[in-house]
């Protein structure tokens, strides 16, 4: 069974400490964990540190291996990271950039298997119709979908996504969260996803950690994290949590504290 735990990680930019001993709980394969918290709380910085884009002191353990000690190439076999920035509008087709990502991941098993895998991922994200489009001709939201395909196509053990829904319309937000859940379980991945909206987390993930000013203020099953008390403490809002007639949780923000 895949197991992941990062931290405690601390990190400063100049004299400003941005992460204070941030650690995840032990996260298991097949589960999705949301990283929540207000703007500037350190979500992206923590994810970048876990991905190894920036260096923080502390262990990043995946199945007994310390990712913090691996070379970039070796780490790419186990871990895929999608940054908050959208993929650039390069002069390459969608299939080309997704194939390239698969190849960089190192789990490349020959051209025809690779094409099959690319097609399967584009289909599961509902973007087969974009396969031959040029990146430079796509909208921001469409490019975000391609960024996601680039991460998913590698079937990493550890999937790190920074606000993957930020540019998407409601339909694609749904398709993406659905595909993420399916792939996470199917491929036994540990998926760690920064989400802007606690309501989405409450409906779609298993566990969550709430950051505020670079510290974890709460972590556990998502129902215990997205609560009126913790929403007030983290975001400074008065929130109500209700169940709709179908049992789905809803968060309504009714004011500031
Ligand atoms: P979040 O993703 O939760 O909105 P970030 O992790 O991007 O927050 O930022 C956390 C804090 O670190 C912010 O105060 C931000 O200004 C600061 N910060 C992020 N990146 C840098 C950087 N490269 N240099 C200096 N400060 C940074
Ligand atoms: Mg961020």
List keywords for this structure.
globular; four-stranded antiparallel β-sheet; six-stranded mixed β-sheet; 9 helices; single chain; binds adenosine-5'-diphosphate; 35% helix; 257 residues; binds magnesium ion; 28% strand; 14 strands; alpha/beta
Main sheet, how many strands, which sense, barrel?
Answer: 6 strands, mixed
Helix content percent band? 25-40%
- Cα shape: globular
- Distinct ligands: adenosine-5'-diphosphate, magnesium ion
Radius of gyration: 18 Å
Structural class: alpha/beta
* Spatial strand sequence of the major β-sheet: 8-9-10-5-11-12
Oligomer: single chain
Low-pLDDT segments:
none
Number of helices: 9
> Separation of termini?
42 Å
**In percent terms, what proportion of residues is strand?**
25-35%
Q: What is the helix/strand order? A: EEEEEHEEHEHHHEHEHEEHHEE
Number of strands: 14
Mean pLDDT: 95
């Amino acid at each position: 069974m895949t197991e992941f735990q990062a931290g405690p990680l601390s990190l400063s930019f100049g004299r400003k400490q941005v992460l204070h001993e941030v650690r995840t709980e032990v996260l298991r394969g097949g589960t999705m964990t949301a990283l929540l918290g207000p703007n500037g709380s350190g979500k992206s910085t923590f994810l970048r540190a876990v991905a190894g884009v920036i260096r923080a002191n502390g262990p990043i353990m995946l199945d007994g291996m310390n990712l913090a000690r691996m070379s970039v190439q070796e780490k790419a076999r186990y871990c895929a990271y999608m940054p908050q920035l959208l993929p650039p509008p390069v002069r390459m087709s969608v299939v080309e950039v997704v194939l390239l990502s698969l190849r960089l991941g190192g789990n490349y098993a020959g051209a025809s298997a690779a094409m099959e895998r690319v097609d399967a991922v584009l289909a599961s994200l509902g973007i087969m119709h974009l396969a031959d489009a040029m990146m430079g001709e796509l909208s921001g939201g469409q490019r975000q979908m391609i960024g996601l395909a680039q991460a998913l196509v590698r079937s990493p053990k550890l999937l790190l996504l920074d606000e993957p829904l930020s540019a998407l319309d409601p339909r694609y937000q749904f398709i993406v969260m659905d595909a993420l859940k399916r792939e996470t379980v199917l491929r036994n991945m540990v998926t760690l996803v920064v989400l802007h909206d606690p309501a989405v987390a409450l409906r779609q993930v298993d566990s969550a950690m709430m950051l505020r000013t670079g510290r974890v203020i709460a972590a556990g099953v998502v129902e215990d994290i997205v609560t009126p008390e913790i929403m007030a403490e983290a975001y400074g809002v008065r929130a109500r949590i209700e169940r709709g007639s179908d049992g789905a949780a809803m968060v309504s923000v009714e004011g500031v504290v």
